[in-house]
Amino acid sequence: MSNDRVRVRGLSIFRPIIYGNTATVLTPKERESLSSPDHTHKWTVAVRSAASNPNSDIVGGADDLSYFIKRVVFKLHETYPNQSRTVDKPPFEVSETGWGEFEIQIRITFISESGEKAILLYHHLKLHPWNATGEAEIPPLDVAIKYGPVHSWQYDEIVFNDPFQNFLSILTAHPPTPLPKGSKRPVPFHLSNPASLEASKGGTPEFTTQMAKEEADRLDAAKKEVLAQQEAMRLQIVEKEKELDSLQRQLNSMA
């Protein structure tokens, strides 16, 4: 066996990505030019590197991910023609227009050198800003158009455990752009002040090391909560089994 196809045991390496969407309200002129005049928004769903180009208003995308991602397939709502959109080269994104929110399945296939199976991610397309309760706030179109894009992005880390030597060499030859410690960009209005649509327009979100740490902390807290709930449920089951056993013994003694 070639040394390139030998796994490096006990080693893990990851690549930070973001996935999600940006949406903006269509102008009356843009709506008139569409074959579907009921569409109210234009949107882009994408898989990108987590770091952003400081000279761009695009969320993420500072790095070209094609050195380890071969293909991304976005599965849209069944009402769209060509429901499964395959993207074989960067940018790994799909742009469309529509009027409703729905779940998008994102299938990421890695290059053959990785020896890794494809992974599935799920993203709920977001067209409307959030309010204070975390629900969608749907202002009139003529009002919403003044506030700029709505952003909905998720940070994640793709972890490769025991990678093949040749794949590890590819990854180490392309280190990801480090995330900034803190964002210097203005925060979009619906994220900075979700209780009011009268807030300032804001700007483009940017992922930072602080945000990544906060996300990791939230995930750890959620895992601990799930484990605690599982343990509480286990104890309840044990108590119920004891109660059932006691009732069964009473029933047997009466027979």
Automatic annotation (TrEMBL):
Assembly and interactions? Component of the SWR1 chromatin-remodeling complex and of the NuA4 histone acetyltransferase complex.
Primary location group? nucleus
InterPro entries given for it? YEAST_sf, YEATS, YEATS_dom
Query: Cross-referenced Pfam families, in alphabetical order?
Result: YEATS
CDD domains named among the record's database cross-references = YEATS_Yaf9_like
Stretches assigned to the YEATS domain: 7-174
Q: What does this protein do?
A: Component of the SWR1 complex which mediates the ATP-dependent exchange of histone H2A for an H2A variant leading to transcriptional regulation of selected genes by chromatin remodeling. Component of the NuA4 histone acetyltransferase complex which is involved in transcriptional activation of selected genes principally by acetylation of nucleosomal histones H4 and H2A. The NuA4 complex is also involved in DNA repair. Yaf9 may also be required for viability in conditions in which the structural integrity of the spindle is compromised.
Q: Where in the cell is it found?
A: Nucleus; Cytoplasm
**Lineage: superkingdom:** Eukaryota
Name by which UniProt lists this protein = Protein AF-9 homolog
Organism from which the protein derives: Pleurotus ostreatus (Oyster mushroom)
Where does this protein have coiled-coil stretches?
212-250
**One GO term describing the cellular component:** Swr1 complex
